[in-house]
Amino acid sequence: MSEEKKVQLSEAFYTQSDEEVLQKFDTTTEGLSAQEAKKRLESYGANALDEGKKKSIVVKFFEQFKDFMIIVLLFAAVISAVFSGDMVDSFIILLVVVLNAIFGVIQEAKAEQAIEALKEMSSPNANIRRDGHVITVKSDELVPGDIVLLEAGDVVPADLRLLEAASLKIEEAALTGESVPVEKEATILEGTASDIGIGDRINMAYSSSNVTYGRGIGVVVGTGMNTEVGKIAGMLANEKETETPLKQNLNQLGKMLTIAILVIAAIMFVVGMMNGRTWIDMLLTSISLAVAAIPEGLPAIVTIILALGTQKMAKKNAIVRKLPAVETLGSTDIICSDKTGTLTLNQMTVEALYTDNEVKPATDAVALDNMALKIMSYTNDTKIAQDGSLIGDPTETALVQFGLDHDFNVTEKVAAEPRVAEIPFDSDRKLMTTVHQLADGKFLVAVKGAPDELLKRCNQALLNGQTPAMDDKQRQEILTTNTKLAKQALRVLGMAYKIVDAVPTEMDSDLVEKDLIFAGLVGMIDPERKEAAEAVKVAKEAGIRPIMITGDHRDTAEAIAARLGIIKEGDDDAVITGAELNELTDEAFAKVVEHYSVYARVSPEHKVRIVKAWQQEGKVVAMTGDGVNDAPALKAADIGIGMGITGTEVSKGASDMVLADDNFSTIIVAVEEGRKVFSNIQKTIQYLLSANLGEVLTLFIATMLAWDTLLPVHLLWINLVTDTFPAIALGVEPAERDVMSHAPRGKKSNFFSGGVLSSVVYQGIVQGGLTLFVYKMAIDFPAHTAANMPNLSATALYDLQHGDALTMAFATLGLIQLFHAFNVKSIYQSVFKVGLFRNKSFNWAILVSFLLLAATILIPGFNDLFSVTSLDGYQWAIVAGTSFAIIPIVEIVKFVQRRMGKS
């Protein structure tokens, strides 16, 4: 094929005839020549997926330093080291920033595995016709126009337009989400390309799907990135990762803090210069204020809190691949869930049996001589492995499993009444027949298939052991029952039989499958998970809206959604199909997206479109799924949740979190953990920022009043000791009891929502005010006076008094923060109601921080290092009493807030 005649592989070949397709690809049913195949391989490229561009570790590392607050911190570290010569401060800042960057690189390196997983799904070999001979080639050597032979057990190596299909069934769940293998036909489909979804293209076989039954022949119409799987790979490569609410909030917080700090530092610098202080002195003072104000440990502390959250979630079968996903779950408004394998078991199961004019649930007892039970087990190609597992078509394995569940030992029964002849299933007549030799020398002709086709061949019906002739009333009753079961989204098969004296000489359908006795109907479904309905209920109570997105048929999707409680029974207005969605523009869809809770017969593009439509409404969207078809939507969602057991490596690679047990209810457990994590991060930020505000106000006001209060080393030690340990411990606070009764906070909320900002402001003011109060008290009412220290000079006495005041201010600011840590266990609830000591980690953190703070004053040698003095009992009493005052003050404010209805 010349370059000029190169075929557009995106055409709708399923609407074209065999002759048209073969002509377009300039090929025949005998296949291409080896020489032509070589030319096309050079023209179209290998039948493989593009790997995509990869960032180097160095690039990933330096990308971690783009954050504005990180840049300011690095600048402060350099300035501090150059002008003050104090390397400790600079070293700590640099260490935190570098560790945070390394951790980010490690997380990112683990994230991009989806394309590699897609490549691994490709079939290693394919049977094709070349030069009129059947040969085996590697799948990546296939080219458009090749003729491929398929049989049961094969993985489809490329996108094929089927030319022949003999009882061909292909399992496409990973691509379409449909749990039942699709019966394929070599026919022409009527309609436009947009009207016919992937799941309805019965004359196509798609790359990476699995042949479960029969055989077929097809012409390659799509290879590599031009296959449906390739399109998904392209969507994954081009889909930008959604910035998580956590990252957005941290960036917003960083910018706001940095601007505020720079403004305050500039004002303080100018005022200090106006008061006659040197520029170098004021520069160092301003840097000290910046160090005090910027919570440089916040990124590391948030990372630690998230890491601890991932450990807890892992114990509950939720494996987090990307740390921010822990927190994002807590803000989720919408959970878009794939049906097959997520809300359902992805395992066909018999749910109802109709015999003797009565529908019985599958759990009811069934007599071992029940003819319908015998037929469904006999007319069946399922294999039973040595370990007891069933191998075969999901529908047939469900029938055998039903028999085994009712003590029908199919192996023994078939051994006693062996199969001697058969007519395989055919998609035209929709029936399968087997003939079995009975003990009395006669033969059982057992037939199963589509009820409407089967009834055309029946003239009798089995009723309580009798076989009266079938009249129109009986026939209509069976058809009515079939319709009722089908409306419940059950896949219905009919069973019929007859006894003959000899094996038919010719196994022809018209001769064998006639004059049958109707035995019963069996209804099957891929059932919902038992725990899924409860999980949906809990999600709704938590203000989260569950949305079902599936490639399955509309009726099936609607029935399962109603059984789960996602929609009300009969609420078909809440259901929309992919074809109907195609008729809506993005603008029109945005106006009606809230009307729909169930999406049926959708493609991967639809799933991404649905996720983005909700995101445009300002919602935080979680997407769950297990198939290749879910991967683009998993990546586009705010949080993608893959399935650990049934999930493909592609879906796991595109996910932020993987459910180890494939249990939908685990998502709700994870949501609760996510809400707890966000709440604890809020508490940590409230604690850090109110403490830092207290430090800033202390230093700022003291500078304005020309007071010499805190030294840079004091601020550094307080930040290092009293900030770090309690802040981390607050990150593992138990969840508050009403955490799942609140509506999701959504994207518009931030770390300052829910009263945190006002709490930070007033609590910071109180801390600064109390510290300055103690300093002023120590200066005005010194413990050391000329009366009790007559031998000291005036200068030495002043230095001693100022040293005491400085030490008391330092101790007070540190202790206030430790006492205040108890306050932030809850924004509005009393600390005595939340529980003072139930978090053991917190208790130890407070104790360790107190000992480290006290060590600077009480241990000899540390005094000189920190420029502090030893305090007497009276001074310690003032420090302790004033510091503790933060608890009753905040308790009073909380009480007023509760009375005002803020909580």
From TrEMBL:
<dbReference type="GO" id="GO:0016887">
    <property type="term" value="F:ATP hydrolysis activity"/>
</dbReference>
<feature type="transmembrane region" description="Helical">
    <location>
        <begin position="91"/>
        <end position="109"/>
    </location>
</feature>
<dbReference type="InterPro" id="IPR006068">
    <property type="entry name" value="ATPase_P-typ_cation-transptr_C"/>
</dbReference>
<dbReference type="InterPro" id="IPR001757">
    <property type="entry name" value="P_typ_ATPase"/>
</dbReference>
<feature type="transmembrane region" description="Helical">
    <location>
        <begin position="256"/>
        <end position="274"/>
    </location>
</feature>
<keyword id="KW-1133">Transmembrane helix</keyword>
<dbReference type="InterPro" id="IPR023298">
    <property type="entry name" value="ATPase_P-typ_TM_dom_sf"/>
</dbReference>
<dbReference type="InterPro" id="IPR044492">
    <property type="entry name" value="P_typ_ATPase_HD_dom"/>
</dbReference>
<dbReference type="InterPro" id="IPR004014">
    <property type="entry name" value="ATPase_P-typ_cation-transptr_N"/>
</dbReference>
<feature type="transmembrane region" description="Helical">
    <location>
        <begin position="805"/>
        <end position="822"/>
    </location>
</feature>
<feature type="transmembrane region" description="Helical">
    <location>
        <begin position="68"/>
        <end position="85"/>
    </location>
</feature>
<dbReference type="GO" id="GO:0005388">
    <property type="term" value="F:P-type calcium transporter activity"/>
</dbReference>
<dbReference type="Pfam" id="PF00122">
    <property type="entry name" value="E1-E2_ATPase"/>
</dbReference>
<keyword id="KW-0406">Ion transport</keyword>
<keyword id="KW-0479">Metal-binding</keyword>
<dbReference type="InterPro" id="IPR059000">
    <property type="entry name" value="ATPase_P-type_domA"/>
</dbReference>
<dbReference type="Pfam" id="PF00690">
    <property type="entry name" value="Cation_ATPase_N"/>
</dbReference>
<keyword id="KW-1278">Translocase</keyword>
<dbReference type="GO" id="GO:0140352">
    <property type="term" value="P:export from cell"/>
</dbReference>
<feature type="transmembrane region" description="Helical">
    <location>
        <begin position="713"/>
        <end position="732"/>
    </location>
</feature>
<keyword id="KW-0106">Calcium</keyword>
<keyword id="KW-0597">Phosphoprotein</keyword>
<dbReference type="GO" id="GO:0005524">
    <property type="term" value="F:ATP binding"/>
</dbReference>
<feature type="transmembrane region" description="Helical">
    <location>
        <begin position="286"/>
        <end position="308"/>
    </location>
</feature>
<keyword id="KW-0109">Calcium transport</keyword>
<dbReference type="Pfam" id="PF13246">
    <property type="entry name" value="Cation_ATPase"/>
</dbReference>
<feature type="transmembrane region" description="Helical">
    <location>
        <begin position="874"/>
        <end position="893"/>
    </location>
</feature>
<dbReference type="InterPro" id="IPR023299">
    <property type="entry name" value="ATPase_P-typ_cyto_dom_N"/>
</dbReference>
<dbReference type="InterPro" id="IPR036412">
    <property type="entry name" value="HAD-like_sf"/>
</dbReference>
<feature type="transmembrane region" description="Helical">
    <location>
        <begin position="842"/>
        <end position="862"/>
    </location>
</feature>
<keyword id="KW-0472">Membrane</keyword>
<keyword id="KW-0547">Nucleotide-binding</keyword>
<keyword id="KW-1003">Cell membrane</keyword>
<protein>
    <recommendedName>
        <fullName>P-type Ca(2+) transporter</fullName>
        <ecNumber>7.2.2.10</ecNumber>
    </recommendedName>
</protein>
<dbReference type="InterPro" id="IPR023214">
    <property type="entry name" value="HAD_sf"/>
</dbReference>
<keyword id="KW-0812">Transmembrane</keyword>
<comment type="similarity">
    <text>Belongs to the cation transport ATPase (P-type) (TC 3.A.3) family. Type IIA subfamily.</text>
</comment>
<feature type="domain" description="Cation-transporting P-type ATPase N-terminal">
    <location>
        <begin position="12"/>
        <end position="85"/>
    </location>
</feature>
<keyword id="KW-0813">Transport</keyword>
<feature type="transmembrane region" description="Helical">
    <location>
        <begin position="685"/>
        <end position="707"/>
    </location>
</feature>
<dbReference type="GO" id="GO:0046872">
    <property type="term" value="F:metal ion binding"/>
</dbReference>
<keyword id="KW-0067">ATP-binding</keyword>
